[in-house]
Design goal:
The complex is a heterodimer of chains A (about 280) and B (about 475). With about 280 residues, chain A is of the alpha/beta class. Chain A has a domain of about 35 residues. Helices cover about 40% and strands about 25% of the residues of chain A. Chain A has nine helices and ten strands. In chain A, the strands form two sheets. Chain A has a six-stranded mixed β-sheet with strand order 6-7-8-3-9-10. In chain A, strands 2-1-4-5 form a four-stranded antiparallel β-sheet, covered by helices on one side. In chain A, helix 8 links the parallel strand 7 and strand 8. In chain A, helix 5 packs parallel to helix 7. About 5% of the residues of chain A have low confidence. About 25% of the residues of chain B have low confidence. The longest helix of chain B is centred in the C-terminal third of the chain and has 50 residues. In chain B, the strands form three sheets. In chain B, strands 1-2-7-6 form a four-stranded mixed β-sheet. A three-stranded mixed β-sheet of chain B has the order 3-5-4. In chain B, strands 8-9 form a two-stranded antiparallel sheet. Chain B folds into two domains: about 210 residues, no CATH class; about 240 residues, no CATH class. Chain B is elongated. Chain B is built from 16 helices and nine strands. The chains are: A alpha/beta (about 280), B alpha/beta (about 475). The structure holds adenosine-5'-diphosphate and magnesium ion (MG).
Amino acid sequence: MSMKKELLTQLQTELQTTYHGDLKALLRHIEKTLEGKSSVDSSKPRRERTGDESVIVTVSDVSREYLFNGNTVQALKHANAEIRSGEIVALVGPSGSGKSTMLQLIGGLDTPSSGSIVVDGKELSAMKESARSEYRNQTIGFIFQFFHLQPYLTVEQNVEIPLLFGDVNTVERKKRVAEALASVGLSEYAKHRPSQLSGGQQQRVAIARALVNHPKVILADEPTGNLDRANATEVMKLLHTINEERGTTMVIVTHDHFVADFADRSIELIDGTLNTHI
Amino acid sequence: MKHRDALRIASTKFRTRKIRTAFLVLSLAVGLTMIAALAGGVAGVMKTARAIFLDAGQGRYYAVEVTTLNRSENTVVEAKKPSIDVGSYIQERKEQYSQKDISVQQVQMIMDNSLKQTLTELPELTTMSGLLSFQTSDAQFIQSYIIDPTIQWDTPQDSIVPVLVPTAALIGDGGPDWYNKSAKEQYTFLQEQQKKYLGKIVQYHSIKAKSESNTTTTEVTGKTQYKIVGFAPEDLYASNLYQSGTFIVPNWAAKNIPEVQGLFEQGNYRTLIAFANKKDRNDFIAAKQGQQVQEVEKRTDAASGETLEFSHYFMPAQGRFDAFSEIASQFQKFFFGVAGFLLAIGEIMLLLTVGRVVADSRKEIGVYRAIGASRSDVRKIFFWYVCVLTAAATFIAVVLAITGQIIASVKWGEQLFYGLVQFSGNAAVVAQPKYLFLGTNGLHILALFGFAFVSALVASAIPIFRASRIDPIIALKEE
Ligand SMILES: Nc1ncnc2c1ncn2[C@@H]1O[C@H](COP(=O)(O)OP(=O)(O)O)[C@@H](O)[C@H]1O
Ligand SMILES: [Mg+2]
């Protein structure tokens, strides 16, 4: 496949998924990128990196193969990456390039076919199933494209769930839920049900749920993929604020350049192989 | 995850599946209700039946009727004609009765049922005074009291022999249309009679009768006082064994009172032995049943000349109770079978429903797993889900079962109670329980809950296991 054709396919996907067929918006984005301008709100200055942040996620020579209809699908090929504590990293790349696979591996939802992943000093593939559950509960906070809130639970009950799996006592639970809801600005919606909230608000509840156990790393798979631009901006700003205030490391899968622009840096995946951009 | 929290999450599942949950709970409850209603109902009936059949004398004495054959060798017994004129005896007594305002039918009944037969069977007793004197300690002594108004009820004195009186003896005052009365009316009357006679002390003369050709001499050998402590089944009244009377004494009396002892040594008795407590009675039954107490009696049938073998060792009260228990347990087995089948259907529905709920909750479980639920957390949630369902079903079952028992008691309680009373020989001094079938107790409820939980968890083990195996990756893949 020639480079040209590949680029064209990528643009086509981008147009369909991120810009919902809005060709003008895509063109504006390309224009801005070519001009070297960021689409991020320019009033928000980028954080200065001191350079002495420790590495929190190390992906070394990781491959992941899937067996699909008797064929081996190589979702990741000898990928290497390092993510430093406190960074916001955007994981970008065309659809099917292995972004979600990467996120699953870092999040302990899946194990690599080969290679090693070390998060917060722990080798994930050495973990037993129960340890991995605890790891997901304590070290990682997940944010999903489709929010995945339980419709029959109230906002505060939804946020509380990870604390139940972590055996946190009632008093502490109350405190942490209130704090998490406050930090996403939804304290007054505690007793509401998710269906009474807008998409952006729902994703903020999901963020509160991801935050409630004070994770070291937040993993988000297309967190704005289901939101309009205004809500997406709100969510990204919120994640940015959290990152600033708490120093939580964030890995955000997206194929929206607008989202990637919020990140400190992007890691691009093409066909299961990583290209790192600073 | 704490069980309390798993229970909380589990119970939220019911909110989203109200109709399905209700349906499932009811289908589980159907089988459980039948089991609970039956177990409790039969327990209630058996409790009363035991009191009716086995506990004589206001619950203070417990009777066992024993028929023994005590012959040392096989004897040929030929039926002999009585040497007294039964017809004129009856006529004579009828006149006496008429003075006492006792109906002819009653006299006839008493005669028919006992005397005639007894007289036929006791050819040695040539005079009525002999018969009566023999009956001082016999089943029919109440009858002789009726017949012979000279016999006094006395005030209590020392060395009183407690006796059980055959209920039939109490029928004497029952009025001319006794057999047209309902079981309930008869029993109510007998209870009144029992109240009247219970605890009474009666004094009889022991008389030796000698007969030589045409003259009879009687000799008073002593006085014995008997205290009526309870009542025996009515049909013990008419004994048809050779030289028998229904000799009703507590077993200590049989051992310790010489004249009573003598009677025991003579031969064949149908004896009602009364015990002061249940344990003694049960020990007695157990001991007798283990012994080789049966002996074969050979009789030559007078008409055909055929030799017949008889082997007797009866405990009718116990035997009839056993027979009734057997019927009850067969009944229970059959309906337990039906209930088990219904419950099995309920359990299959549970299996399918839990399977379905697990399938419907795949995404939810995946999300829970992704945000930190371990496999055992997922199992806990579904464990409690099944437990709450089962608890609801069992609770409904207990309520329905008790309601059913009350309804059955109102509808059929009286009929069954008096049926049992009649079958037992009317000896019971037991009031009709308000709710005969109401036998569910705490232990039943506990057992039902245990049984329901175990079977429900067995049925749902596979879907619960499946739930715990759901891959958390679906949280990222599914909408
Ligand atoms: N469970 C799976 N079985 C088979 N192939 C899979 C599975 N998961 C992902 N893949 C394949 O791996 C590749 C990478 O998938 P994914 O990580 O989801 O990509 P992205 O998130 O970048 O769109 C794709 O070709 C996809 O079809
Ligand atoms: Mg993806």
